[in-house]
Design brief:
The chain is mostly helical. The chain is built from three helices and no strands. It has one domain. Helix 1 runs antiparallel to helix 2 and helix 2 runs antiparallel to helix 3.
């Protein structure tokens, strides 16, 4: 038979495991999105390179070859910058998701930790002024956690990227 304290600790451990699993899932999903962007960039650059090589083979003058080379370099730079912007956007989204998850976990975990400590201490034989002092300490800790949670939530919300726009 388990006590309330043991049940509370088990619940906190379960929630920690769930959070770790969600973070791992976010990490895997984000990595897959980034790899996909990199593969798309590589494919585009290879296609452009093949087209450029074909066109270069058909040039008739050095001037035409230079113009073709300049257009190819500009197209390549545009592809690189476009994909780099997408990679930065995806990275910011992933970071925002991690921040929200950590913030949520911090809020709920802090409240649960204070609650667990109160439950654990409530079974002990405190009385009079010492029991009241402990209760006041727990209440102050709870209020502090709430303030920190609110502040961290606002900070993560301010730091999160705006909603993604599809091209």
């Amino acid at each position: 038979m388990t006590t309330k304290t043991e049940e509370t600790v088990l619940t906190l451990q379960q929630q920690g495991l769930e959070t770790a699993m969600r973070m791992a899932q976010l990490s895997i999903e984000g990595s897959q999105r980034l790899v996909q962007l990199q593969l798309e960039l590589a494919r585009e650059l290879i296609e452009d390179g093949v087209e450029g090589a074909k066109a270069f083979g058909e040039t008739r003058s050095p001037q035409e070859a230079l113009e073709l080379r300049a257009r190819h370099a500009q197209r390549t730079a545009e592809h690189l910058l476009g994909r780099c912007n997408e990679i930065v956007r995806v990275s910011a989204e992933i970071q925002g998701e991690f921040g929200r998850l950590v913030s949520e976990r911090f809020v709920s975990g802090s409240q649960e930790a204070v609650s667990a400590m109160q439950k654990a201490w409530s079974g002990l034989p405190f009385g009079g002024a010492s029991g009241e002092a402990m209760q006041n300490t727990f209440e102050a800790a709870r209020k502090t956690f709430e303030q920190l949670s609110r502040a961290s939530g606002e900070a993560f919300a301010a730091a999160s990227p705006p909603p993604a726009r599809k091209r």
